[in-house]
Amino acid sequence: MPQLSADDAARLRDDLAGWTVDAVEAVVGDRAARALGREQITPALMAARDAGADRHALLTRLFVLGDVLSDADLSTALPALTADGAARTGLVAMTDGAGRALVQLSPHAAADGDVQVDWWVPSDPREAITGRAVQPDHVLGVGGASTMLASVTVRRPVGRVLDLGTGCGIQALHASLHADQVVATDISRRALAYARLSEAINRPALREAAWDMREGSLLEPVEGEAFDLIVSNPPFVITPPGAPRFEYRDGGLEGDAVVETLIREAGAHLHPGGIAQFLGNWEIRGDWTSRLETWLDASPVPLDAWVIQRDALDAAEYAETWLRDAGITPERDAERFRDAYETYLRAFDATGVEAIGFGAVLLRRPMHGSPTLRRLEEHEGALPSPLGPHLAASLDAHDWLAQTSDEALLDAALTVAPDVTKETYGRPLLVDPEHLLLRQGGALGRSIKADTALAGFVGACDGELTAGQIAHALAALLDVPAGTMVGGLVPAIRDLVRDGFLIR
Question: DSSP secondary structure string, 345-409?
């Protein structure tokens, strides 16, 4: 594993300055950038080689595409660290005057308010570079799951953050922008070494947040401690006994016990008001929510909970997804692929698993009193990014609604969120539309079927009149008893405020 002194890390930062996500895309072009998203490196490699001695092209060839550089090209790419320094620190292996990177080092961009922060994230070279299945101790770089977790995380200034299962350290990097201290844990020593490398390379951009790295499984390294925020992209992949196992995705527990453990035990490690957010898989037998409800009920610390299931795969789809993820393919090793595939199917069939769900879990320890939120819902397709601000706003809206009576709600002046549109549908010869939809352009992109009264209410919410004034005006206009109109609108208004259609 590479080891950088403070001086070597500073030299490497000087060499990487300006080499960003945008710089890589400028070198390889749109077509190659899209191909990289599909794990195809050939177009990018062609473009980067054609760019000659351009320093950004050389860095891209070396650290992103796994290409071999001559000693002269290495010196051009790394003038401060030098080719000898890259070899001495373990970043590059030299053979016959040419060098190949031993790590993948990828630019990564993050938003810090209105300012973009550029990082470089180290990991093991991916399967598309090595051309072989990954090793059991493989350390993953920034992928779809880690990006999704970063997107859904509620970002507020906090004291202590726990990044459980830190891997290459990407969630710890994000947490450093809004936390005083980051505790990063992992069961893998190799992963912790990569996280230390991430910290060393990016330290000036991490403000004053101190990192405390600890080895151990799940919550064991932080026994007796509490945090304001826990984030985790845990090793949640369900790996049947006898199937190939990998540290970066398999926590060593049977079935979906990793997610169960986090749901049951995370609350005890949260300060009042603290939030835990993590991704996970769960086995589905019948109603997908029942298993999670059981785990939530078993938590010794009562918690608010919001679970969004984004996808559900049958056993065959699940086996194919995770075998290919590890580079175990019928093209590369047909017998190994077939045996592992059968292991997955027989194990799931034997335990009655109908499908495997995937999604995001948000838990919150109430600041005072008992939990008031228990929301388990489905959202098909990719989650919008960033989603964290919407989740934070929805939690605030929920808290306000929980302590607001119907009378107080009707006394509030509400405004339609700027991303909400009204859509009407109907046959061309009809005077009035048959369907009215209120659609959210951002957040979770929800749509709500509205009747004339609800559509009229939302259309009048400009912040001038109170909800009660609008409701009574609609009652008079539509010739409906005021009590009936108000009684019908109040539950709908609560839903619209909670989901961000209406804002205070």
Answer: HHHHHHTT--EEEEEEEEEE--SSSS---EEEEE--SPPPS--HHHHHHHHHHHHHHHT--HHHH
**Percent of the chain having pLDDT more than 70?**
98
Q: What is the mean pLDDT of residues 188-207?
A: 91
Distance in angstroms (rounded) separating the CA atoms of residues 256 and 237: 8
Taking the domain 110-401, which CATH number applies?
3.40.50.150
pLDDT tens-digit profile of 217-276?
Answer: 999 999 999 999 999 999 899 999 999 888 888 877 888 999 999 999 999 999 999 999
Give the phi and the psi of residue 320 in degrees, each rounded to 5.
-60, -45
Which residues make beta-bridge pairs with 11?
none
Segment 329-333 long-range contacts (CB within 8 Å, at least 24 positions apart)? 332/132, 332/133, 333/133
Beta bridge partners of 282: 357
User: In terms of Cα–Cα distance, which of 256, 186, 185 is closest to 227?
Assistant: 185
Strands in 374-378's sheet, in edge-to-edge order, are 210-215, 179-186, 158-164, 227-232, 270-284, 355-364, 304-313, 374-378
Is the previous residue joined to 481 through a cis bond, with omega within 30 degrees of 0? no
For the chain, the domains span: 6-102, 110-401, 404-503
What tokens appear for 235 in the block? Answer: 């090793």
Instruction: Count CA within 13 A, CB hemisphere, residue 328.
Output: 19
pTM of the predicted structure, to 2 decimals: 0.92
Adjacent-strand bridge partners of 362 = 277, 306
